[in-house]
Amino acid sequence: MALLHQLAISLCLVVAVSSQSSQDLESAKAKLKEYIAKKRADINPRYRPHYHIAPPVGWMNDPNGFSYYKGEYHMFYQFYPYNATTGPIHWGHSSSPNLVDWKELPTALLPDKEQCFSGSGVVDGDTLVLMYTAHEITNASAPIYNETQFLAMSTDGVNFKKYEGNPVLASAPNGSPDFRDPKVWKHENYWYVVLGSKTDDNKGRVLLYRSSDLKSWEYLSVIGASNGTMGYMWECPDFFELDGKFILLMSPQGLEAQGDRYKNTHQTGYIIGSFNYTTFEFVHEVEFQEIDFGHDFYASQTIDKDGKRYMVGWFGMWDVPYPEAVDGWVGTLTLIRELSLVGNRIIQKPVEAMTKLREQGKTGALPPNGYIEFDKTGEIIVNGTLNQKIELLIEGKQGGGKAWLKWDPEVGKVIVDRGSNDIRQVEWSPIGRHSWRIFLDASSLELFCGEGEVVFSSRVFPTGDWRVTNLSPQTLDVETYHLKKSITAMTNGSSCRDISFSLLVFTFMMILKQHFA
Ligand SMILES: *[C@@H]1O[C@H](CO)[C@@H](O)[C@H](O)[C@H]1NC(C)=O
Ligand SMILES: *[C@@H]1O[C@H](CO)[C@@H](O)[C@H](O)[C@H]1NC(C)=O
Ligand SMILES: *[C@@H]1O[C@H](CO)[C@@H](O)[C@H](O)[C@H]1NC(C)=O
Ligand SMILES: *[C@@H]1O[C@H](CO)[C@@H](O)[C@H](O)[C@H]1NC(C)=O
Ligand SMILES: *[C@@H]1O[C@H](CO)[C@@H](O)[C@H](O)[C@H]1NC(C)=O
Ligand SMILES: *[C@@H]1O[C@H](CO)[C@@H](O)[C@H](O)[C@H]1NC(C)=O
Ligand SMILES: *[C@@H]1O[C@H](CO)[C@@H](O)[C@H](O)[C@H]1NC(C)=O
Description:
- β11 and β12 (218-225) form a beta hairpin.
- The longest helix is centred in the first third of the chain and has 19 residues, at 22-40.
- The protein has 2 domains: 4-350, Glycosyl hydrolase domain, family 43 (Tachylectin-2, Chain A, 5 Propeller); 356-513, Sandwich (Jelly Rolls).
- The model is unreliable at 7-18 and 494-517 (pLDDT under 50).
- The strands form 7 sheets. The chain has a 7-stranded antiparallel beta sheet with strand order 28-27-26-25-32-23-35, with no helix packed on it.
- By secondary structure, the chain is mostly beta strands.
- The chain is built from 3 helices and 35 strands.
- 47% of the residues are buried.
- Bound molecules: 2-acetamido-2-deoxy-beta-D-glucopyranose (7 copies).
- The site of one 2-acetamido-2-deoxy-beta-D-glucopyranose (NAG) has 2 residues, from loops.
């Protein structure tokens, strides 16, 4: 959660909102549901994702509370229903049996005196417990806000009640007002939480605490801190074991761009090291590196399930234009990715169940200047020789936003170029297969190189359906699919799939045209 964006709105909120009784809360929830049901009818669907989570209406940013409870995965997100910009923040909610098919659920947390900033979810016995940052306005002059940690509980995975004993963590050891984004996990007999914060002289850092009951917390250590060049605030920390090492994944703010690196407004990346649960010391072994090299990736969160580590990110960024805002909504989450550690690099693969969405598979040779047409979605696996250039132009059939995906063998870099010098690029040394796997949704592309050692997530806003043209000097082997819709909207009352979309799927035709130059 980036703070500056919240300030103006927060100042208004402090005047307008007083504490809600539970009756008021029920009626506020019912009104909100009604509002969403009415408002969604006005949304222009042109950029709406078909298989990525997005808010039904209004604004979304960070994913929150990623968890597995009573047989379903749960995904929450920072949500402001009443505008396509941020505002007094709620928690939106979806659930899924398989990390691919997502069903929208009622808004889980509504702001009261506090805004419900980012946090996480864990299962304690029969209860799904959310721990989040209560962001409150305290004073009209600096520091004008106070951040403490709150709990909210549910025994049905839909209705959440805020804990009466909130806050459970009232302040950072140094009293910093920036104290947010709790990520909780259990190890042996204790719960642990990492929190993003900063030193008195504005260097980002991550704090570690533990608790035996999620309510009373003991401060343990600082597991990572900026040395002065690594940012003024470290947001959305996550800390977990992966293939024998410990990973501190977080979103530092305030890194200076350095060549190809750190070109987004804020970054997300990780430090690899080893950790000792007796000394609470995290020894850094490999310093910070970005986890995703695209234009739009922030505030990632992971969970562990059956020995696998899954990650999701906000498929967005602060302070960038969102063409979908005029349509009444903003923001989406990335595909869920399974992580593993190979050497000094986390590799990412789209969750396996993504192949369930494939339809109308085709394989063939795509010669230079040949193109493939899709409707709003597509998956493309591309094989070519890395001795020569690869270049794919991804664009709307009727124009609009476009991107060039390139491999330049001279410099050994993969490049995602949105035109007008809006370029992200990074070195790629394949550790296994040499192919690319590309996911197109109505306004996004995700490029997974090789085994997932290099990944780019970038929003692109085409006019009309997609066209992908081979601008390489070489013929590429391609495998293509249409991807089915996997997001189920909540209607006023029940959940059901959008009928007009089913018709669209029914009539869908993917044409493979090959034009020899
Ligand atoms: C939603 O349902 C409620 C009662 O079930 C009804 O009063 C309201 O008019 C409905 N709203 C919309 C937008 O359909
Ligand atoms: C909605 O966002 C616009 C653009 O930022 C702003 O001018 C307006 O005040 C916002 N309205 C509400 C209700 O937040
Ligand atoms: C608000 O902040 C100002 C300046 O720091 C301080 O003088 C004042 O006492 C504060 N007011 C309250 C109600 O805390
Ligand atoms: C925030 O509020 C808590 C009480 O809820 C208080 O203990 C803490 O000192 C406050 N922190 C700041 C930075 O004002
Ligand atoms: C962790 O630290 C304790 C105390 O220094 C030490 O006894 C133990 O061997 C360490 N564990 C590991 C796995 O290094
Ligand atoms: C600070 O840390 C970064 C990343 O670990 C490193 O590249 C840089 O050299 C360090 N700077 C100083 C002044 O120590
Ligand atoms: C790409 O290459 C991999 C192995 O190198 C192979 O398994 C796959 O079938 C190829 N795909 C296409 C579309 O040629």
